[in-house]
Write a structure and sequence with these properties.
Blueprint (H helix, E strand, L loop, with lengths): L1 H6 L1 H8 L10 H17 L1 H9 L4 H7 L4 H12 L4 H13 L2 H8 L6 H24 L8 H6 L2 H12 L5 H14 L7 H6 L10 H7 L3 H9 L7 E3 L2 E3 L5 H16 L2 H10 L1 H11 L4 H16 L12 H9 L17 H9 L2 H17 L8 H16 L4 H9 L3 H22 L13 H9 L1 H26 L9 H11 L20 H8 L6 E6 L2 E5 L12 E3 L4 H5 L47 H6 L1
Antiparallel strand pairs: 1-2, 3-4, 4-5
Helix pairs in contact: 3-4, 3-6, 6-9, 8-9, 8-11, 9-12, 11-12, 11-14, 12-16, 15-16, 16-19, 18-19, 19-23, 23-24, 23-25, 23-27
């Protein structure tokens, strides 16, 4: 089939003609088309690529139908499924000459419908990730990826931002454009285990042209946080929210957090001038139930506190500066270190302009007052706890511990006393209550083979355990934020164990262990015995008066599990009078009239024959054939 279809241009033209239809395409047929072309690209690469390159309108037609996700998949197959590397480079150059990146960016505009914008944004994000992955995997690359180069150019970033903010601003356009920028700002950590075990800083690979393109538009993102596209009030479980935060502002906060992690001096200065961090804190305390926003603000503060040592560098990931350092062209005494980097403008801004310590204390005291009056615990208290811990930890041991300590000492006497009391008593007690003892997995291994595996892969298992601890910490904070437990009510290990003992019947450990490999006759009775340790009786409502009832296995003689009718006698009237008890409740499908295949009934919804009506709108004869 591959040889016949891939080598016959007449057949390829019949297949290609599918693109000539006006949008929107039938999604099912479009997926068939994309899958067929994609397989031909992978198996008859040279023939199909040569055929497509002769079609001048191919790229235009694919972009015309980009609102259908199958066309997005086809475009990505062209980028990722072509081999060998030389032919792939030719395809990339062909797509670049057709200005595929610039044309996709043009589709992220308020004048385009939402599906086209969304799929264009997703395509650009996938191209970025695919190109970066392939460039890392393939060492012998003849030349740089032209599509990635175009995407990371300052001109491309500026055009994207112009589409987002110049003219009419819509939430959909801002969100889709910001997603592309966030993907461009994604960083890659090389040698994860080594960097963490040896205490190295993360290595960022953000291109400086991306940052230069974003910097002049920081004022637009700040204005977005102040005045987003209008949204109507929404009803939530805690009441009516007159002014929702909105997805546009959430994505704006994500971008600010990502930019702070690059720790670019010029961007830090602009954010300080705009007082964007102060605005984010305002939103943090205004929207006390939006955990997505709380997490981004926490990430921003963590970036300021922990990555500030790199501020003296022009761009943290500038490849040229890295090469100069490695080649010895830059004097090492000029590089910023914790000793000579005595002040960081973002840290100063956070503690002086944003009054971080005072805000933490005021919010905590306000929450205590609300709870004392019988109110609900505020939803951002979990993240506020972690922010307070981050301040304490970086004051005790961090790249800017000297500067942070000085700011604490410079606080007014009453405020400094409140902070010290808060850290020594309130925060310590909160951390103690929020700590959950982890169950050790070492004793769960009962096989010597498991012990061998554990010793053979110590790094992987320790990384997995560390990740599990991180997950539990994340879940703890989110659990507190979501459900608003008082500190006294937060579940601990003993409470959890007590609940388990009360609600779950333990397995009988006194039973003599049996060799599962021993050859013996398996009887139904032994299976029943093994399955009745935890009796189960539950009733599940299925809607429309139906209830599924599940009884313990040995509570009565075996009977078929059926859905029992508790609200209608329709089945009783249809069943014969001499029905045995074992057959009661079974539906007789022979009594139903067919849903289709009849002159008067509705049409069959089979996708195989969706256009098989005659001119009068009546089903053709083939309709019955499809249903049969």
């Amino acid at each position: 089939i591959n040889d016949k279809l891939g080598g016959d241009e007449t057949l390829l033209n019949i297949l290609y003609d599918f693109l000539d239809h006006e949008p929107p395409l039938n999604p099912l047929l479009a997926s068939f088309f994309s899958k067929t072309i994609g397989n031909l690209i992978a198996r008859k690469t040279e023939q199909v690529i040569a055929f497509l390159r002769k079609k001048e309108k191919f790229i235009s037609l694919v972009l015309k139908h980009i609102d259908t996700s199958a066309m997005m998949d086809l475009l990505l197959r062209l980028i990722s499924c072509v081999e060998p590397a030389t032919l792939r480079q030719e395809v990339l150059n062909w797509l670049n000459e057709a200005k595929i990146i610039q044309r996709l960016v043009e589709l992220i505009h308020s004048s385009q419908d939402e599906d086209r914008q969304s799929n264009a944004s997703q395509t650009l994000c996938d191209i970025i990730r695919l190109s970066r992955d392939q460039s890392n995997q393939l060492q012998d690359i003849p030349e740089p990826d032209p599509l990635l180069t175009a995407l990371e150019s300052q001109e491309c970033v500026e055009q994207l931002l112009k589409n987002m903010f110049d003219g009419e601003q819509t939430e959909n356009c801002i969100v889709n454009g910001t997603q592309v920028l966030l993907t461009l700002l994604e960083t890659r950590v090389e040698g994860l285990m080594d960097s963490y075990t040896q205490g190295f800083e993360r290595s960022y690979t953000v291109n400086s042209s991306i940052l230069h393109g974003i910097e002049p538009r920081l004022k637009d993102f700040h204005q977005l946080l102040l005045s987003p596209p209008k949204k109507t009030a929404i009803l939530t479980t805690i009441g009516v929210l007159e002014e929702p935060l909105g997805n546009a502002r959430l994505h704006g906060s994500r971008l600010i957090a990502a930019l702070l992690h690059t720790n670019t001096p010029s961007i830090n200065q602009e954010l300080c001038r705009l007082s964007t961090m102060n605005l984010l804190l305002d939103l943090f305390f205004k929207y006390t139930w939006n955990n997505f926003l709380h997490f981004q603000v926490e990430l921003s503060i963590a970036a300021i506190l922990s990555h500030s040592v790199q501020e003296g560098k022009t761009i943290t990931n500038d490849l040229e500066s890295k090469e100069e350092v490695l080649n010895g062209n830059v004097a090492t005494e000029n590089l910023e270190t914790p000793e000579n980097n005595t002040e960081n403008i973002m840290v100063t801004h956070l503690f002086q302009k944003c009054c971080l310590v005072q805000r933490i204390l005021d919010a905590w005291e306000a929450n205590d007052k609300i709870q004392a009056e019988g109110g609900m615990r505020r939803g951002n208290m979990g993240h506020l706890t972690r922010i307070a811990n981050a301040v304490v930890q970086n004051m005790e041991k961090g790249p800017m511990q000297t500067q942070i300590s000085e700011f604490i000492k410079e606080l007014p006497e009453d405020c400094r006393g409140r902070w010290e009391s808060f850290v020594e008593e309130t925060l310590t007690e909160t951390n103690r209550r929020n700590t959950v003892d982890l169950v050790s997995t070492h004793h769960l291994h009962s096989s010597s083979e498991d012990e061998d595996i554990e010793s053979a892969f110590p790094n992987e298992l320790s990384l997995q355990q560390a990740f599990s601890e991180y997950q539990i910490q994340q879940m703890t904070a989110n659990f507190v934020d979501q459900f608003g437990f008082n500190d006294e009510e937060f579940p601990n290990a003993s409470l959890f164990e007590a609940c388990c003992n009360e609600r779950i019947q333990q397995f009988d450990d006194n039973e003599e262990e049996e060799d599962i490999w021993e050859e013996k006759e398996i009887t139904y009775a032994t299976q029943v015995k093994s399955r009745t340790r935890i009796p189960v009786h539950c009733s599940v409502s299925l809607g429309s008066g139906w209830t599924a009832v599940f009884e313990p296995v040995n509570s009565k003689p075996p009977a078929p599990c059926v859905a029992m009718d508790v609200g209608s006698s329709v089945w009783d009237s249809a069943a014969p009078e001499n029905t045995t008890p074992e057959e009661k409740g079974w539906a007789k499908f022979t009594d139903f009239q067919p849903f289709c295949c009849s002159e008067s009934g509705p049409r069959c919804s089979s996708p195989v024959d969706t256009e098989s009506n005659d001119s009068d709108g009546n089903p053709k004869q083939s309709q019955d054939k499809n249903c049969k």
